[in-house]
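Objective 1b: paired records.
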Amino acid sequence: MFLGGIVNFIRTTMPNSARRSHCPPLLSSRFADNQTAWRQQGRFLSYCSRGGGLGSWLRGLGSALAISILAERALILDGTCEQLPTAVSKYVAEYFQGNGFTWTAADGEGQRAQVERGGHGRTMTLSPVCRASVRPCGYNRTMVQGQLVADSTPLELHAGEHAMVDKIRDKASRARVVALFSGKRDSWLEIWDALHSCAFELLMQPTRRLTALTDAFISRHGVQRGVDGELLLVAIHARLGDGNMRADRSVIQANQGDVRWVSEQRPNAMRNSPLGALSCFSTMQPGSSYLLITDSSQAAECARRNGVITTRGDAVHLGAASQLKPMDIDKLMLDWWLLAVAQEAGRFGRQSNFLVSARWRHGEAQRQTRDFSRGCNRSAAFTVKCGTFEAKTED
């Protein structure tokens, strides 16, 4: 049992890492071992996102971590979801990996077949939504009374931005997870940021491919490192809306006249006053390279004209695209990782799933991300005018 003998599993040594771990000692020392053991026992939990995009998928990883522990099952993040096919699972394993363990369905010859045929063809679905075809209903019946823990029935977890760890409402389950993070109150809120930062540390380590992309980006733009080895990089996320992503590849057809995405109807400093928005970089950590991560080609061009670096490729939404170029997938994953490793990050407008999950990976609480919704006083460093950006519409 993972949580039944907490004291026996605590070790005095921290993982071999150059930076401080964001996980409590028990998870740092034993999570990988337990994942490997449960995999060998043929006990699996496949994570399926209820949203189609990368941000929503990332937002549900805290739930995946908690349910994996409570159900005592090895996580599969790139598996085939029977009831809820997830676009992210096609790509994620090329860029990310587990911290000392594998969460892929394919792990050597025949392993995928073992994962997908386990449990004698029966799969139990865990979901926060109560439907006639989905049982058990809600996370509140998640193995807290020994249900399914003793057998090897495969579990398929449906989670995401609207189905996070707070949906585990059973008091005993919540108490077990809260205790892992030394929470003093029986509340998800108290451990919210810590739990998610730990989940990303354990589940989202860069692969060789992502490391190569990062190194190439650093070399191309001359990004320096500090004495501690951390990148001297600050980033702002300018999300102007899904409509800014290339319409010719979108499976979301605007066949009902003029369509404007909800996020594009909200005020945004980058759209209304681009130079005032870019001036916010001057308020961030001095001596750093400036990076703008955006889904708008107009915003990216404006940034480059003013000496702010950006990433190559077109912004894509994995849940709204029928065909994707490898370069654009590279950009998506690199964008998220750069937001995660930046020393400081900011945003214009509402905080997106993409940004908040990246900053959790950095070890930062949600409220620490800089809010530049109102823009900033004009800085002499940004003078090349860009006009204003019209909200993208499709007809």
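Objective 1b, second protein:
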Amino acid sequence: MTTTIAVSPEVAKELKLLKIEEGHESLDEMVRKILIEYKKRRFLEAGEKFRKRMEEKGLKPADLT
């Protein structure tokens, strides 16, 4: 099942160009990959934030076990 989302003509054009440049077969495939990369980045950022907080408190990963 497909659905429609509203984006400006400029965004639609950029998405189509990016799809072609990156060699994706469909916009759906491209958006799925973008979402995966976004989630990975958020996960890594959260890990970095956690690591910095541990350092601020003088803790090491071994202290968690």
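The two ends are 46 Å apart (CA to CA). The chain has a mean pLDDT of 94.
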